[in-house]
Fold this sequence. Notes:
The protein has two domains: 56 residues, no CATH class; 120 residues, no CATH class. It contains five helices and no strands. Helix 2 packs antiparallel against helix 5. It is elongated and about 105 Å long.
Amino acid sequence: MPDRTFLFDIPEQASPQKRATAELAGLIDTLRGAVEQLAEAHVALSDRVDALDASTAFVPARHCWRDLHREDARELWAWLITWTHWLSDRYGLAQDLGTCWPAHPALVEELTALVVSWHHAYSAKADPDAPLRWHEALHRARTRWQHWDTNRCRHGQHTPRSPDTVWEQPWPDIAERAVSEDIRTRSAPAVAAEETGGSR
């Protein structure tokens, strides 16, 4: 940054107005220098932030199945299974969504997207029509489930819905086996640097 110090010498015989003007000019010059220093510091800080962003690996959201370690996956499974059971009972989806859904990755991803969206749709920050958009998304999802039913483990032909149609028992055991298999194949959580004596 160039030196912008105000160097004008005020003559001895200068009027009070001229002296005040010169002093004001000196203060303005000092302020200009401070603003330039602040601008340079801002640019330097922005460059550092950009460099950190570029060098930091992607940190997945806690509902991104592809990148979860086993502890986060265990927590997400419990959350998803509880909500999906509620969803099936609330909307009568036992004929559309079989008890073996945890063994079908596409259904797991779809239901995870639905539960995340559902929580947002009914949050205080959501738009008033968010719940309606969520129900439209659920309607489209139910159609996709039939396309993903490659194993034909749900009803292959239309069956009139019965009020007492529920997931057959022991559905929690089926879910538990699928969850255990998924957890078993995941990596363990990374040990924090503080627990290993810090970074070198």
